């Protein structure tokens, strides 16, 4: 009866789960469905890719030569159109010799936008800096000071106009949005009603109708003899439009503040505006920064609509650059791809920033 | 006792002093109303004055006068002698047509893309990710223009179209496809299908009661499908079983017969669908991610398959998160359809634009645009709110 010692058979070593081969096995050939998909999609890729590469790189014409582009038509892309027309596309009809001005102004504005994205710089002086840069922007673009030639707004265009429209309407819409959001949560019925009507009315109609209004009806609204520049009218329209959307975002932030915060503020004897300024808004606005950045992205994309009311921002500038030139007109697709890339770079960068700041700001809420 | 009670309740202060909150609130509101009222009066006065001076006529009387312009595609008969009201009606119909088809396609494509982000296959995952990032970071107007360019310049001429099996033709003239000749049979089939849907709904209710009574789920999907198909088939047979199809054919210079959609319609439809799908995919993804992981684990520990746990456990919970932002996307799509004006699809904005240029009645035409979109927006959100309420958590 002596128990005989029988060692248990050792278990096999665990299957390797890290590294390239296991990753491929898990992610590309997990089961037969996955393997089939991989094979099918891979085959499609191998089938399409050479053609795409051929068209966009190997057979593409990169020199601004209309005849060679014409010869390569249908087989290779004509990137030459961009080298030929890029100044017209990016700066629109701005006088050619003066184009360093919109360039400098845009660099200033973009630098400031980037600075405003960094939390260290969220101080009071940032507002002052914004006002200063906006003045500098207009001085550079419009001229008439420091011996700069005057360039009227109907010649502004391209990327500077796109960035300016988005940035300015954002800057002006923000305070308005905060006020409307507070008004919508106010206990005064008249003020609340006005804010609700404003927000719902604007959110219920497309931007294009607001732009039509700015373009066709605004001149009728003004007293006799007073004409307002079309750029300014469109800017007012976009600002009012953006403010309604932003107000809803801010309201979302306000709703997230617990009631205890208001009660604690009331206990301390703070007035309504003191409560909002010192207690509620700092918390609520920090919550909605990602939402506001997303709103800015859609605003940036929406500025392309002003081309319909004949302001030549990036999309419109491409039209005037290519439509009138019979040599280069056939290569519009390449032009579209070029400005698509510009929009994509800006919007993608901002959406990455929005994700990053969302994580950074809400560190205290994450576990 | 009564004295103590009186001392405890704070006195109602209705004095007319600046220290009374009620009084201050009243003053603020009176100020707000008068400021807004004055602004509106100022704008209206200026508008009327300007119109008087410039000799612009106002009023909606022009709607009855002949429009005098042709419209590229109409859902019902129209010619240039018809009144403006009919042109506007066609515009609204065109807007609704592109919006409704777009919403259906967007929902399907967006949901597939959103679920695709959770695929076990890395290629599918990265395609979905790349699609979303690419399409939502480029302005929709630019996308519409590119589609339009594709349809009007890069496709072959109608004389030598691209074709699929001799049934579908794609060219600069648009997309042609076979369509059944509309006869009594098709109408009865449609009515039959509607009756079938009602009968299937009754059957589903019966199956549910049965399930609650016995605990055994009767089959639902196949019988319902069978009922609908059977009713449609019965209607078709009853109407004389017409089998005539109108098939597009290639003629000398163009394609004749069959149904056709114009390149403008296709460009607007595809542009809006591809753009909005990227957002819908994100909405669906966020909704699925919001369902706690424990739910999936609980479902698989009950022995549900992957498909079952998706359909019975995850999606019903995800829907609650998905519906409100999805409503917003539907509304965005509808509002973005106004960009059709840029490529000449005759939607309501495009018609209004022409009408403004012809009659100069900007105020009235813009009012019509806004009214149309406000009505659609409010109706859609009302419908979606109703659906949202139905799928919300039933709490005790």
Structure description:
The complex is a heterodimer of chains A (367) and B (396). Chain A is mostly helical and 367 residues long. Chain A has a single domain (80-365), classed as MetI-like (MetI-like fold, Orthogonal Bundle). Chain A has helices at residues 20-27, 32-58, 66-71, 80-91, 100-116, 124-142, 158-184, 189-204, 207-221, 230-255, 259-267, 272-302, 314-323, 332-361. Chain A is flat. The termini of chain A are far apart. The mean pLDDT of chain A is 84. Chain B is mostly helical and 396 residues long. Chain B has 2 domains: 84-181 and 244-391, MetI-like (MetI-like fold); 182-243. Chain B is built from 12 helices and 8 strands. Chain B has helices at residues 2-8, 21-54, 84-116, 122-136, 140-154, 184-214, 221-238, 263-290, 293-301, 306-336, 348-359, 362-391; strands spanning 162-164, 168-171, 174-177, 179-180, 245-246, 249-250, 255-256, 259-261. Chain B has a 4-stranded antiparallel sheet. In chain B, a hairpin with a 4-residue loop joins β6 (249-250) and β7. The longest helix of chain B is centred in the N-terminal third of the chain and has 34 residues, at 21-54. Chain B is globular. The model of chain B has no long low-confidence stretch (mean pLDDT 82). Chains A and B meet through α2, α8, α9, α12 and α14 of A and α2, α4, α5, α11 and α12 of B.
Primary descriptors:
heterodimer, A: 367 residues, mainly alpha, MetI-like fold, 14 helices, B: 396 residues, four-stranded antiparallel β-sheet, two-stranded antiparallel ribbon, 12 helices, 8 strands, 66% helix
